[in-house]
Amino acid sequence: MARIQMYTTAWCGYCVRAKTLLEQRGLDFEEIRVDEDPAFRTDLLERFGGWTVPQIVIDGEPIGGYSELWKLDKNGELENLAA
């Protein structure tokens, strides 16, 4: 099974949606909360090319945020990536 990491904050509605989608699909993920880091946006931008949350990484490859995760799921590609 693929390693899924998700960078989140407590106040992010899209983070909640992404976690719910993964849980509904039965996919385990590691949640990495970045609330306490005042420079988290800069760090995310440097590491993944995006500064919003959630930032989702599957097996070391950044896929983007909730919208990209949702599209992967709707196209049937999430299952393949997570296998």
Protein architecture, described:
The chain has a single domain, classed as Glutaredoxin. With 83 residues, the protein is an alpha+beta fold. The protein is globular. Strand 3 and strand 4 (61-64) form a beta hairpin. It has a four-stranded mixed sheet with strand order 2-1-3-4, covered by helices on one side. It has four helices and four strands. The model has no long low-confidence stretch (mean pLDDT 92).
Number of domains: 1
> Number of helix segments?
4
Radius of gyration: 12 Å
Low-pLDDT windows of residues = none
Shape: globular
Task: Please give the share of residues in helix.
Answer: 40-55%
What can be said about the biggest beta sheet? 4 strands, mixed
In the CATH scheme, what's the topology name? Answer: Glutaredoxin
CATH homologous superfamily - what is it? Glutaredoxin
> In sequence order, what are the helices and strands, one letter per element?
EHEHEEHH
Distance, first to last CA: 5 Å
CATH hierarchy class name: Alpha Beta
- CATH architecture label: 3-Layer(aba) Sandwich
Residue share in β-strands = 15-25%
Mean pLDDT: 92
The number of distinct β-strands equals 4
**Strand order across the biggest sheet?**
2-1-3-4
**Derived structural class:** alpha+beta
